[in-house]
Write a structure and sequence with these properties.
Number of domains of chain A: 1
Order of helices and strands of chain A: HHEHEHHEEHEEEHH
Largest sheet of chain B: 7 strands, mixed
Strand order of the largest sheet of chain B: 2-8-7-6-5-3-4
Number of helices of chain A: 8
CATH superfamily of chain A: Type I PLP-dependent aspartate aminotransferase-like (Major domain)
Oligomer: heterodimer
CATH topology of chain A: Aspartate Aminotransferase, domain 2
Number of domains of chain B: 2
Distance between the termini of chain B: 15 Å
CATH class of chain A: Alpha Beta
Strand order of the largest sheet of chain A: 1-7-6-5-4-2-3
Shape of chain B: globular
CATH architecture of chain A: 3-Layer(aba) Sandwich
CATH topology of the largest domain in chain B: Aspartate Aminotransferase, domain 2
Strand content of chain B: 5-15%
Helix content of chain B: 40-55%
Number of helices of chain B: 13
Strand content of chain A: 5-15%
Order of helices and strands of chain B: HHEHHEHEHEHEHEEEHHHEEHEEEH
Helix content of chain A: 25-40%
Radius of gyration of chain B: 21 Å
Structural class of chain B: alpha/beta
Structural class of chain A: alpha/beta
Distance between the termini of chain A: 54 Å
CATH superfamily of the largest domain in chain B: Type I PLP-dependent aspartate aminotransferase-like (Major domain)
Radius of gyration of chain A: 19 Å
Number of strands of chain B: 13
Chain lengths: ~240, ~400
């Protein structure tokens, strides 16, 4: 086969970053081993429901209640192919092309660097200062920030969407159930700190939850069944 | 046009969106007594050697973290398969492992299409292609196919639809939803057209293992001159009855694979390592399970064909895949309404033709992914509903 297609690739491809190297393999927690083996033995190798298996979504729901005091219905929780898919789906559906995404970053600028990777595909612009609040579509909470409380208040005032990556920033109860921001906040997390390479994470909440789930379904249908059961086995064993 | 005012709002509001319509019906199909002949999810067990291999790898703590493009051993095995079975001229660098076939299509469209491009798609179609194409800012252009031709793709229809904006032609063979195949003779003619008009051909071959009677699967990428203009999509879900593991693959020129790898890094990351181990066991394992699956599906197909004929319903010649594309127009009931009635009163889930394009209100897509006993029971239930509501 020749090296190249007979026609040029899409223009956006030339602006994409190179793929990263894989993470380090880790010891699989015993609960995950048991969960995966049992799922394989019992024939759980077929499509799961679009949102993901109920027991794992229940664990995510309990986590959100315990850590953030948020009551998010199971129907508004979707198990994703890792946090990468959750972030792409949320940014795709919440940030319109040419709208601004305001972000919190760490000192190394890792969040900005990461978000720039989406721009050839999603075409939003980035800012770390809310000078034009009316142009901002999404507040992306990617790292701790002394301004966060003020920015959340601005999000409420200006109807921004909020994406809260809990794997990087785990402050508790900044968004309360009753302040109106919960309906415009998408939380997301991952099981991949303990299960790298198993492609299992989650996204939860917001009045857009159904649309986010539908878009995820259009990309990957559902998340890998054995990974979901492994994650459930791991979390369940931890709880016991 | 829907006439039956009893159709619930959750169906009515999505009736013009094929994918949403199918999912709405699936969500209504709750209860153990429903016989599901809708979704293309094989009911058969994943072959035992795959299960055992993955279980052992998990026990041994031997589940790798995959590079974005897939485990090297799996990419190599896929390339070797495509060379040996499909006649492609490729190596492992021409392969990317995806999180199911559907993701392969999504990545493909992101890498291939610019806004304003047109993609030729046979009608009827698996409407989940739509979002992938439209997400890249491109437009779908339908190619008509018809019952009398067993939904084979006519080269002259393809050529008639080409405009200066046409960038690609999507071929699905065997076809979802029609069960038709595009024959080798036609594919060779279509290849000439693709070369003449400098088109990319996207060849979705996910059902290649299930072709019946004397029909044979043929890969257009094997035609001389097509190697730098064919993108081949396939996966493990249907062939090995492991839809939940989410492993597919794409074979294409290297610059294309490199582009897809970059998009995949930003959208879903690598396919799960544990799932890729299953795929590797599948593709390097014995062929007997596949042959057994094919024999079982062929038997079910015959039971379904006989039952539909006895009911007075005709269907397109099901040459491959898992589906009978059934002409329901003789019932006088719009397919969307008929599907709802079959589910509500017959407790049988069958997708209407409108789940695969707005022009197909006179067809049903009926899968054969249940045991022969359940297929017979489903046929009995269908008959009572059709007799009750026949116009």
């Amino acid at each position: 086969m020749s090296e190249t297609l007979s026609r040029p690739l899409a223009e956006r491809v030339s602006r994409l970053k190179s793929a990263p190297l894989p993470a380090q393999q880790k010891t699989i927690p015993s609960g995950a081993v048991e969960g995966a083996i049992e799922a394989l033995a019992s024939g759980k190798t077929h499509y799961t429901t679009r949102p993901g298996i109920v027991p794992l979504r229940e664990k995510v729901s309990a986590h959100l209640q315990q850590v953030y005091q948020l009551d998010i219905p199971l129907d508004d929780i979707t198990i994703t192919c890792g946090i990468q898919e959750a972030e792409f789906v949320a940014l795709k559906k919440l940030a319109t092309p040419a709208s601004q995404v305001l972000y919190t970053d760490n000192e190394q600028g890792a969040v900005a660097d990461y978000l720039q990777g989406f721009m050839p595909l999603l075409e939003f612009t980035l800012t770390d200062t809310p000078n034009t609040p009316e142009n901002i579509a999404v507040l992306y909470i990617g790292a701790s920030s002394p301004n966060l409380a003020d920015w959340l208040q601005m999000a409420l005032t200006h109807n921004w969407w909020v994406i809260w990556n809990t794997t990087n920033y785990d402050a508790s109860a900044l968004i309360s159930q009753d302040d109106g921001l919960a309906s415009r906040t998408v939380l997301m997390g991952s099981f991949e700190d303990m299960l790298p390479g198993w492609a299992v994470g989650w996204m939860a909440g917001s009045e857009m939850a159904g649309q986010l789930r539908a878009y995820k379904q259009s990309m990957t249908i559902c998340s890998p069944s054995i990974s979901q059961w492994a994650a459930y086995g791991m979390v369940n064993a931890d709880a016991e | 046009m829907l006439n039956n005012m009893n159709i619930p709002e959750e169906i009515r509001k999505v009736a013009s969106d094929g994918t949403a319509l199918r999912y709405a019906l699936m969500e209504m199909a709750t209860g153990a007594d429903v016989i599901a002949l809708g979704r293309g999810d094989p009911d058969l067990d994943t072959p035992e050697h795959i299960i055992k291999t993955v279980q052992q790898a998990v026990r041994d703590q031997n589940v790798p973290v995959s590079p974005i493009a897939g485990l090297p051993a799996l990419r190599t095995a896929v390339a070797e398969k495509l060379v040996a079975e499909n006649g492609l001229n490729i190596g492992s660098d021409n392969v990317i492992i995806t999180t199911g076939g559907q993701e392969g299509l999504f990545l493909l469209m992101q890498v291939l299409l610019d806004p304003g491009d047109e993609v030729l798609v046979p009608d009827p179609r698996y409407t989940s292609y739509d979002q992938a194409i439209e997400s890249a800012g491109a437009k779908i252009v339908m190619i008509p196919t018809d019952h009398d031709d067993a939904f084979n793709l006519r080269p002259e229809s393809v050529e008639a639809a080409i405009t200066p904006k046409t960038k690609a032609l999507l071929i699905v063979t065997p076809s979802n939803p029609t069960g038709g195949i595009v024959t080798e003779e036609r594919l060779r003619e279509i290849a000439e057209i693709a070369i003449k008009h400098n088109l990319i051909v996207i060849s979705d071959e996910i059902y290649e293992k299930f072709v019946y009677d004397d029909w044979r699967h043929f890969s257009i990428g094997s035609v001389p001159g097509m190697e730098n203009r064919t993108v081949t999509l396939n996966g493990f879900s249907k062939a090995y009855s492991m839809t939940g593991l989410r492993v597919g693959y794409v074979a294409a020129p290297k610059n294309f694979i490199s582009g897809m790898e970059k998009v995949k890094a930003m959208t879903t990351g690598a396919a799960a390592g544990v799932s890729q181990l299953a795929a590797l066991a599948a593709i390097t394992g014995p062929s007997e399970p596949l042959e057994n699956f094919r024999r079982i599906y062929a038997e079910r197909r015959r039971v379904m064909m006989d039952g539909l004929s006895a009911m007075g319903l005709s269907y397109s010649d099901p040459r491959g895949a898992f589906f009978l594309w059934t002409d329901s127009s003789t019932t006088g009931i719009h397919a969307t309404e008929l599907s709802y009635l079959l589910l509500k009163e017959g407790r049988v889930l069958i997708f209407p033709g409108t789940g695969f394009g707005e022009n197909w209100g006179g067809y049903l897509r009926i899968s054969i992914l249940q045991s022969t006993d359940l297929i017979r029971e489903a046929l009995t239930r269908m008959q009572s509903v059709v007799e009750k509501y026949h116009v």
